[in-house]
């Protein structure tokens, strides 16, 4: 290292002991100080460089493929460098000095609250997909673990059936994380629904799947535009596995692909079970007729026989009649009320003779006034109080009783034997399995096999369907995609809007289809006609949904996998009967063959039968937001009228060549058709032209 000492102007250096030496003795001190200062600066520069180099090495250490980690969270980029996923650690921060990287695993052992097991493992399952296994496991603290996923200006889909259903998901208000468990959203409209999965999908070609072991709670923030993922055991129905401490763990997988459709296909094939067979083709082809909305609990033998006679008289076909609540004397019994059904055997003989098959309503409850309540107590068939000594009483919409413990093999066998008995005795074709949500369990309970996740109860209930699955229906599902039956969306109100109304049907069907449930039954045409929840007319005793609402509902249902009537078309007038005949025939000839073809593919792929527009328009921002149109497969697009008083609607045609049901050709797509005319007896649909 050279040090250059400047020479003052006019000075000359001389040899020997000249006066210059004396001058230097006085003026040399600043030179020495300058030299020392220079050394300090050089040393500081070296230290800074070393620190900078160490920081660079640490920064590199905290990177994985397309992922950057910091103490507060992590972000993921796509192949072009754009940020497509952001997660913030809300419950704590990482001590980055405790982090290390070995191969494809980035791990940390300390947070601001103590020891933890944190890692992100990068996995490349295929060339077009990269996944990250993320785990934050507390080793000392029993507090909650919470991560917040940002929206990143993308559109998100999935999660759960909800009472007010939007497509894509809308974050509204501030919601503290609540247990993400199956619930009856008809009775509790702020809860998560009876069909749910811990899976979300983004238009940014990212998807997240929360692990089964997590005591998972979900919340959100409209202000921060985040979904809040929380793991906790405190004040929660989740319980740690036997022999484990109540130390929360939040773990999940985030996968990034090329586009939204291909990443969803990967996730479904990797993480969702598939059905093993297609349910009865007849239910896809012919409408199902239920007694519920028409007769409610006042159904009788005479009313059922008259209903069947009217179906035939008005020229309609029927896959099967569904005898709903209530045909038994008390809830929890498995035979007919002799007062309401004085000759049940004769009734079934008559219906069979007239070409009708019949399914029966069933549920997991036995009310305390039923003769079977004492039997179930004696045999130990009920879910119990936490002590395990006494059966737990639960309140449901038809009273108070016990709920069968489907983790108990004896309870499963008893319930199944009761169903088989009534099926054999009367020639019943199948059953409508109602309820099954974990929200009907007591707040504190015990089961023969302990449930860490209350929604496992729902899974066990859905397994009871398997012997009857050909024509059976469920309204709940959790990890139940392999149950080969029809999944009914929760009861609809007879209204137009997004809260359990007509507008909610497409978003709900699309949502549960994305969750892997493809054999969808979209509830009863016109809704359930509940008093005070119906747009229509009432004579004091009976409520009739609005005529226009009924017709538009009928038209939409004709393009769903299966149709279900209850309030009959002849409750209105002959024109409605003719429209219904037209659309049941269109369903049978146009829709059902395509649906059955796609249903066969579900067994291998799990791909939806009813698909969003973005399925074929993967980079189309408009397609990501459309909630009133849908596809059947890739080549049949449907655009129903969902507004009262309208005989026109705006329609979006994605890229491609389309032919309308009127024979028009549209070649220069994508395009909007504004105020496209659709008469009251029509539904707009378009076929993709190859």
Q: Mind explaining what this structure looks like?
A:
Strands 1-2-3-4-9-15-14-11 form an eight-stranded antiparallel sheet. Helix 11 runs parallel beside helix 12 (574-605). The protein is 26% helix and 26% strand. The longest helix has 43 residues, at 19-61. It contains 13 helices and 35 strands.
Estimate what percentage of residues fall within beta strands: 25-35%
Number of helical regions: 13
Largest sheet: 8 strands, antiparallel
Q: For the terminal residues, how far apart are their CA atoms?
A: 77 Å
How are strands sequenced across the largest beta sheet?
1-2-3-4-9-15-14-11
Mean pLDDT across every amino acid position: 92
Layout of strands and helices, then pairs:
Layout: H1 19-61, E1 63-64, E2 67-70, E3 73-77, E4 83-89, E5 99-102, E6 105-111, E7 114-126, E8 129-138, E9 145-150, E10 156-160, E11 174-179, E12 196-202, E13 206-210, E14 216-221, E15 226-231, E16 249-256, H2 260-271, H3 281-285, E17 288-290, H4 292-295, H5 301-313, E18 321-323, H6 344-353, E19 358-362, E20 365-367, H7 371-379, E21 394-396, E22 399-403, H8 409-426, E23 430-433, H9 456-462, E24 473-474, E25 486-488, H10 505-514, E26 520-521, E27 536-538, E28 543-545, H11 547-557, E29 564-565, H12 574-605, E30 610-611, H13 621-625, E31 630-632, E32 636-639, E33 648-660, E34 665-677, E35 684-688
Parallel strand pairs: 17-18, 17-29, 18-19, 19-23, 23-24, 24-25, 25-26
Antiparallel strand pairs: 1-2, 2-3, 3-4, 4-9, 5-6, 6-7, 7-8, 8-16, 9-15, 10-12, 11-14, 12-13, 13-16, 14-15, 20-22, 21-22, 27-28, 30-31, 31-32, 32-35, 33-34, 33-35
Helix pairs in contact: 11-12
